Amino acid sequence: MKAPALAFLPIATVLLAAEPPIPAKPEYNRDVRPILADACFRCHGFDKNTREADLRLDVREAAVAKIDGIFPIMPGKPADSEVWRRITASDKDDLMPPAKEHRQLSAREKEILKRWIEQGAEYQPHWAYIAPAKAAPPDVKQAGFVRGAIDQFVLARQQRSLGLEHAGEADRATLARRLYLDLLGLPPTPAEVDAFAKDAAPDATGKLVEKLLASPQFGERMAVWWLDLARFADTIGYHSDNPHDVWPYRDYVIAAFNENKRFDRFTLEQIAGDLLPDATLQTRVASTFNRLNMRTQEGGAQPKQYEAKTVTDRVKAIGTVWLGQTFMCAECHDHKFDPVTARDFYALGAFFADVKETPIGREEETIIVADDATLAKLKSLDEALAKTRAKLAERVKVTEPEQPFWEFDLNERIGSNPKEHGIPKDLVAALKVEKAKRNPKQKQALDDYIQRNHPLLAPVRKALDAAEVERKRFFDPLPKTIATVSTAPEFRTVRLLPRGDWMKEDGEVVLPTMPAYLDAKSGDAANATRLTRLDLAKWLVARNNPLTARVVVNRLWKQFFGIGLCKTLDDLGTQGELPPNQALLDWLACEFMDSGWDVKHIVKLMLTSGAYRQSSVPTKALVQRDPENRAVTRAGRWRLDAEFLRDNALSVSGLLVQKLGGPSVKPYQPAGYWENLNFPVREWANDKGPDQWRRGLYTWWQRSYLHPALMALDAPSREECTAERVRSNIPQQALVLLNDPTYVEAARAFAGRIIAEGGDDTDERLAWAWRQATQREAKPDELALIAKLFEDHKQSFAEDAAGRGTLLNTGYAPAPKDANPTELAAWTSVARALLNLHETITRS
Amino acid sequence: MNLEQTRRTFLGRTAQGVGAVALASLLGQRKLLAATGAAPLGFKPKAKRVIWLSMAGGPSHLELFDFKPKLAAMDGMPMPESMTAGQQVAQLQGQKLVCFGPQSKFRRYGQCGAELSELFPGIGAVADEICIVRSMTSEAINHDPAHTFINTGSQLPGKPSMGSWVTYGLGSDAEDLPGFVVLVSTGPGRTPQPISVRQWSAGFLPSRFQGVQLRGKGDPVLYLQNPGVSRAQQGDIIRTVNALNAKRDALVDDPEIATRIAQYEMAFRMQASVPELTDLRDESQSTLDRYGCAPGDGSFASNCLLARRLAERGVRFIQLYHRDWDHHSLLREELPLRARETDRACGALITDLKQRGMLDETLVVWAGEFGRTPMSQSNKGSPGRDHHNKGFSIWLAGGGVRGGMSYGATDELGYAAVENVVSAHDLHATMLHLLGIDHRRFSVKVQGLESKLTGVEPARVLHPILT
Predict the structure, then answer these.
(1) 3-state secondary structure A124-176
(2) A732 touching chain B per CB within 8 A
(3) Cα(B174)–Cα(A2) distance, rounded to whole angstroms?
(4) Under an 8 A CB cutoff, do A796 and B257 touch?
(5) Are B32 and B345 in contact (CB under 8 A)?
(6) Cα angle, residue B302 at apex, residues B299 and B303 outer, rounded to 5°
(7) Calpha distance A798→A791 (Å, rounded)
(8) Shortest CA gap B457–chain A (Å)
């Protein structure tokens, strides 16, 4: 905890010290723009509020036009270009950037600018706003590495641009573990590793990938990625953070990946599943996507403010999830760096002006997620209920002589228990009024009471109670979700909010329109029929949309290589990274669209590539030359995501309960963790049945108090769309993996397995246990260390009955019968060590 | 295992191991952090650390700090419409707005003669050490966004909290404790507002700068306790894991492994240092009496004492929450209870820090997320006041803040700040300044924008209140 940010700096700087060669033909996007953007645009760019000397260098027309008798840039002639004169000026008053600025140009940067001006100062539009082109894969060959187009692009960059070698191919055991973890989020069993290692078929990897893609756990694994993006959570997020019913959406996502729903269709269903001409229950559930925004039930919250927040949330969602654009900047003003205007922002928000919702308070579920037979049964229950209600509505005629009897009875009840008689106030008041003087309301109150208590109606009332109970019993457990319901042809008015101020009511009214900079025809929309969410969704996955396919394949790449081809996963705008291997990114994007947006196809291409099969261990030279692995000179390695860490421990321990979908579950959570929640006060109840041992993705997602184990391991709160999880390495993670009952219980169960399945003697068991945890054979020195731990703890636990009792009673899973407690405790220590190994928790 | 060596390895190698995003953000900091030594981030620091007392719910400035005779005189009369027209209202939306006179008496305290509520004799006793700001404002008018605003400078979730910013910028002197610690206590009242962990989130900063909650009940830090194994046995396991990890590192050359080893060591040390920290048995009875707490009672007073102990151990940012200041009704009945729960300990904390020579280097801030309306609200029982963001009071002490003064003022009804208006961004800028950080240059590049705790609009350091 001691290290402040600045402690890292000298080292971080050294990493980038080796300067690449100066390109012979500088390209604007690749070479020139980054320099201008960093050093010049702040005063000579798009922002008119900060522009100096009326000069802008971000558009060619302005940069090459004469102002005050001089040319900022004279294409072909640096000597006649004011820009060149200024950046090389010896006079401090003339020098640009001004001497007082922190940012100064290096000799290399100046040389690049000079060459670029000499060669004509050609500008390029931003790379990501031009539709991707599918270049032919470079003609490079390397046996054992090049297995397809991906490798040709990767190798070409390694060899031609960087002169780099790459790490060799990983061994089969490593590759098997990698494939299982990447595709299922679960480790293979040693037997599965062996099967793959022994498979001599030339396409063994392809076969394994096919097999894993067909496994239902593939959908669970991919859902984790998508649920972060979709901001899926079980609670509303703000203030009281109460639950909302949306888990059927999670199951929709799992199913979509499993059935390989084409990504274009996946998009349509989530944004406009209710508007599709062939809408089904499933597509309506998909449309829950639009309703996953944070909400509040706070007293005194302003509906208009939260209406504005909802607009912001949805525009951000479209920008983040599909377009990789940072639209939120435009909530208050035109974007400072990208061409998106505040008008674009609110015009995108207007697409959602038909979503039926209440800005403040509890949102009712809109659909029941059940098959036709279930719905028919519910209908019949409802009809029976209505019929009984109708019967009760036929009132009994109360006769004259009967009336005093009822009044007497009532007064008696009140008199016998004046404090808690339970008779409504208005009825008590009515009784006090003389019969003749009662007004119609008072008469009604008395009659209602008689009807509710009349013995003649007792059987009907009984029938009604029974019908209500039956219906409730049937209805309550039915899965429901808050899906999108359209109010069309009614639409909320969406206004441009100056500076994002929701109290302003005089902003321009905007209609649904695509951002002008991405869709040249968007201006025509004003005159045509009002565009819908379906139009928006179709535009997102239209062939000429330059962003969506790139954004998606880039994120898939990140899933399997550890870093995106463009490393800024959420920003393909001008402030994002210019992808070092854009040709590969674009090829994949085109291939994705050409395949009909086939996710499994792209995943298979990536995972059967030579690039993927590399070892993750770098040579010293690679660490030096390619420190961030941007040239894919080796495989990625990273600590497993929070959910998969849990899955891994449960799987190795044998506790994992494999069940697809259903309501979210509650694994062990420290008591009192919710003590600072209120309205109402709540306590988490650990699941006691099989749901205790479900996969991590099913964990109840409480936005304001995310499960502390998930949180310590960097799972996002999902208050907003998240394209990339941070991956930290902090002491709380050690505490979770060592002491969280989930992991202690897993270790205890793993210990039971070691004794039962690991062989007869200690050495055999140690080796077996090691292999279960890491899926590789242990080395002798490794075995020696855990053997010592085992022996030491066998001794210490023998003397500590209380301690081992506590240890072995952690969690609800039953302890194995007949096990010697001291042995079991000592093996639990071994299991805890194994489950905490960096290797065990790392995908490499 | 050699501790010092491991730490060096950790520091030395993490840079290679940081993810792409962190690397980029660190490089973005290069200019800002270029200088090293005593004033790495701008100025010579006066404060080394911060203790921030968050009075959650929105304490009423009108009963506690900001006496308004005119409001007393207008009690029961309509609030002048000219003041309230077009302004945000929370629960009083659409209701008749009626003046509600101060419900507590005020008196003068200290040499400086500060005017404070009689409910605050403890704080009054240190009046000469504190600076009362009577012109505080907030953008937000509901609890959740208002907390988020004063903690992160933005109402929108996702930004780092100030404690994260400060530990990110300065690191921490605490060897075996997190650099940013949060403690929450709750009044035994009726409607404590929820507090989300978002309030101490590191946002887009690396997770290790997030606040760690120290809990009053159960494990003081989550998952701190060993599962039935002794400390020696836990040590065996950690040593075995670390030794095996070191072997692995030799083979695969993964810089994350050195960090992992260091973090397991840190976790193990925390398992000893946190119980030592929270064990108040080594405090004298007179100290406990002065704060007004009993060990293990989980009270605000205990937390104040823990705050002093955390400060002694070098923790950089200590944030206390005391919940249940949300007095929409029963103000007269409930407010004195909250005052009694907190007042004495606040005073004791200041005195204790001063006696130990720590007040000069510890900035203490007392603030709610907003104040309360001069208008009455009475949905249940006796009247209270609604949320109010146009003007309220906070106080600061120590760490380079001038004591015995007040700054800023609200209008004669205590509705709007009219003199030396202070925003949360100004407050943050001032805090950073005292810590030696120039808030204008303390930024992290996020999605192309230089994001700052103090936001995009100009913020000012409150120089008049500094020594």
Answers:
(1) CCCHHHCCCCCCCCCCCCCCCCCCCHHHHHHHHHHHHHHCCCCCCECCHHHHH
(2) yes
(3) 6
(4) no
(5) no
(6) 90
(7) 11
(8) 12
What DSSP assignment string belongs to A552-589?
A: HHHHHHHHHHSS-SSS-TT--STTSPPPTTHHHHHHHH
Q: What residues contact residue B4 under an 8 Å CB cut-off, 6+ apart? A: none
Helices and strands of chain A, counted as H and E runs: 34, 4
Sequence-separated (6 or more) residues with CB below 8 Å from residue A113:
A26, A32, A35, A83, A84, A87, A105
B374 φ, ψ to 5°?
-70, -15
User: Are A717 and A703 a contacting pair, CB within 8 Å?
Assistant: yes
Which of B29, B175, B268 has its CB closest to that of A5?
B29
Interchain CB distance below 8 Å, A732 and B222 = yes
Q: Are A430 and A448 in contact (CB under 8 A)?
A: no
Give the mutation candidate from B223, B329, B441 for the A interface (greatest A CB count, under 10 A).
Answer: B223
Query: What are the CA-CA distances from residue A38 to residues A334, A694, B25, B438 (Å)?
Result: 19, 49, 14, 22
- For A27, A35, B212, the CA distances from A42, given in Å and listed in that order, are 21, 12, 38
Tell me the per-residue pLDDT of A589-646, one tens digit each, with 9 for 90 and over: 999 999 999 999 999 999 999 999 999 999 888 888 888 899 999 999 999 999 999 9
- Give the integer Cα–Cα distance in Å for A125 and A7: 39
CB B12 within 8 A of CB A11: yes
**At CB < 8 A and 24+ separation, what contacts does A823-826 make?**
A823/A755, A823/A794, A824/A748, A824/A751, A824/A752, A824/A755, A825/A751, A825/A793, A825/A797, A826/A790, A826/A791, A826/A793, A826/A794, A826/A797
CA B392 to the chain's CA centroid: 17
**ipTM attached to this prediction:** 0.90
| A364-412 residue pLDDT tens | 899 999 999 999 999 999 999 999 999 888 877 777 778 788 888 888 8
Decide if B223 and A732 are in contact by the 8 Å CB cutoff: yes
Give the CA dihedral B84, B86, B89, B93, nearest 10 degrees: 100
Q: Nearest CB to A717: which of B198, B257, B271?
A: B198
Q: Measure CA A594 to chain center.
A: 26
**Per-residue pLDDT tens over the stretch B392-444:** 999 999 999 999 999 999 999 999 999 999 999 999 999 999 999 999 989 99
Q: Give me A748's structure tokens.
A: 């205890």
User: What is the H or E stretch that residue A368 is in?
Assistant: strand A367-368
Both tokens assigned to B199: 């309030």
Contact B227 A7 (CB under 8 A): no
Residues B210 and B181: their CA atoms lie apart, in Å, by: 9
Range list of β-strands (E), B22-171:
49-55, 106-109, 114-117, 130-136
CA gap A536, B400 in Å, rounded = 56
Give the DSSP H/E element, type plus range, for residue B184. strand B180-186
A600: left (phi over 0), alpha (psi -120 to 50) or beta: alpha
Inter-axis angle of helices A190-198 and A172-184, nearest 10: 120
The dihedral of CA B85, B87, B89, B93: what is its sign?
positive
Give, in order, the Cα–Cα distances in Å from A504 to each of A314, A352, A500.
20, 20, 9
Give A778's pLDDT tier (boundaries 50, 70, 90): very high
Spell out the residues 6+ positions from residue A125 whose beta carbon is closer than 8 angstroms to its own.
Answer: none
A784: helix, strand or coil: helix
Which residues in chain A have their CB less than 8 angstroms from residue B178's CB?
Answer: 1, 731
- Is A803 within 8 Å of B230 when comparing Cβ atoms? yes
User: Against a cut of 0.95, is the pTM above it?
Assistant: no
- Please provide residue B78's backbone torsions phi and psi, each rounded to the nearest 5 degrees: -60, 145
CB contact under 8 A, A302 and B270: no
Q: Do A590 and A602 meet the contact criterion of CB atoms below 8 Å apart?
A: no
